[in-house]
Amino acid sequence: MEREAFLARVRAALVDLPAPPLPEALPPTFASGDGRLFERFAEELAAAGGEARRLPSFALADAVAELAAGARTAVVTPDLGPFLGRVEDGLRRAGCRVLEPTRAAAARAELGITGAALGVAATGSVLLRAGPDAPRAASLLPPTHVAVLPEERLVPGFEGLFAALPDLARGASQAVLVTGPSRTADIERTLVRGVHGPLRLVVAVVAP
C-alpha cells in the first residue's frame, strides 16, 4: 500500500474518535519552613552522593567561605539573584577569586556556584536552568558545584515540578534535573565519579 493511501486510511479511522482527556493539573506545592521536607531531600541527595545544607540567608556567606576554603578560583552566575552579594562576600572572605562565568573560566575554576530553580524532595534532585543569566558551564565544568535553592522552592514530588515547570523553564535554553554529582559506569561497569560533570555537589537550601 502506498504511503499516502495508508495515511489517509489512518486519518479516516481516527476522525470520529474523541480527544483523550487532559490530566488534572496540580498546583505547585511549595514548602513553608517544613523541616521534614528538607530532611527527605537531604536523605535522598546523600544516597546519590550529594550534600545538602539548610541555613538562614544571613549565614550563606559563612557557608560559602567554608565551602571555598582552599579554592583559588570560582565562577558564580547572575541567577543567584538576591543571594549573589552574600555568595561573593563569602568567596572574598575565603580569598577565592571570582571569574567571569565564561566557558573557559569555568573550565579552570575550582568551584561553581549557581542558583537552582526547584528542588524535589522525593529524589533529592534540583532543577537547573540554562540561559543568559545561568551559563550551563558553571554547573558542569568546575569539580565542585554549589547550587543555592530557596527553601520555598522545595516541593515534595514530581507533581509540583511538572506544575511549575512551564513557568520556570520560560526563557531558558535548557532545564535539566540533576540528582547528585556526576557518575558513569559505562566502561566495564566500573563506577567513576566526576567524568561528565562535577565530582562534588552541594545544595544550600536557604530558609526564609
Topology:
Blueprint: H1 3-14, H2 35-47, E1 51-56, H3 60-67, E2 73-76, H4 84-93, E3 97-99, H5 103-108, E4 111-115, E5 118-120, E6 125-130, H6 137-140, E7 144-150, E8 154-155, H7 158-168, E9 174-178, E10 183-184, E11 192-193, E12 200-207
Parallel strand pairs: 1-12, 2-3, 2-4, 4-7, 5-8, 7-12
Antiparallel strand pairs: 5-6, 6-9, 10-11
Protein described:
By secondary structure, this protein is an alpha/beta fold. The chain contains 7 helices and 12 strands. It has a domain at 38-182: Rossmann fold (3-Layer(aba) Sandwich), CATH 3.40.50. It has helices at residues 3-14, 35-47, 60-67, 84-93, 103-108, 137-140, 158-168; strands at 51-56, 73-76, 97-99, 111-115, 118-120, 125-130, 144-150, 154-155, 174-178, 183-184, 192-193, 200-207. The N and C termini lie far apart (65 Å).
Summed up:
With 208 residues, the protein is α/β, with parallel strands linked by helices. The chain has helices at residues 3-14, 35-47, 60-67, 84-93, 103-108, 137-140, 158-168; strands spanning 51-56, 73-76, 97-99, 111-115, 118-120, 125-130, 144-150, 154-155, 174-178, 183-184, 192-193, 200-207. Helices cover 31% and strands 25% of the residues.
